[in-house]
Design goal:
- The protein is mainly alpha-helical and about 140 residues long.
- It has two domains: about 60 residues; about 40 residues.
- Helix content is about 75%, strand content about 0%.
- The chain has four helices and no strands.
- It is elongated.
Length: about 140
């Protein structure tokens, strides 16, 4: 990667993180206003606030994971290099499958070659002639 490409990628990551913080501030303000409106002015149930908070919170979590990744979640049991490990496992698995398919193809070609050779060769049956043995002649 060239210096310019690295700078552009870093700039995109910073913009994504900034976007997440704006999203989080909007979430906190809207949920706070909903709570205030429903609980203090309308004196209604808290369920709509919880429902909106959970639904929007899922989106906020997804936005966080896209912006920051899982590097900061090691304390929750996420390994920071789990993506590379999973990618390595998938590549190995696909290579094994490809090698097995190639081996099966080679074996099928060998079998078809053997079948065509045996079909082209004609087996000659020889007549078995019974010869008298010495014991039979002495009697």
């Amino acid at each position: 990667m060239e210096e310019k490409d690295i700078y552009e990628v870093a700039q995109e990551k910073v913009a994504a993180k900034k976007g997440f913080f704006y999203h989080f501030v909007a979430y906190a303000m809207v949920i706070g206003m909903l709570y205030f409106i429903i609980c203090y002015t309308a004196k209604g149930p808290l369920f709509p606030v919880i429902l909106v908070g959970l639904a929007w919170g899922i989106g906020l979590i997804i936005h966080y994971l896209k912006a920051f990744g899982t590097e900061q979640l090691d304390f929750l049991g996420f390994e920071s290099n789990w993506e590379e490990e999973e990618l390595r496992k998938e590549v190995e698995k696909l290579e094994r499958i490809r090698n097995l398919k190639e081996q099966i193809g080679k074996e099928k070609r060998l079998i078809s070659d053997l079948d065509s050779e045996s079909a082209s060769e004609s087996l000659e049956l020889k007549e078995i002639v019974k010869r008298p043995t010495e014991n039979n002649n002495n009697s």
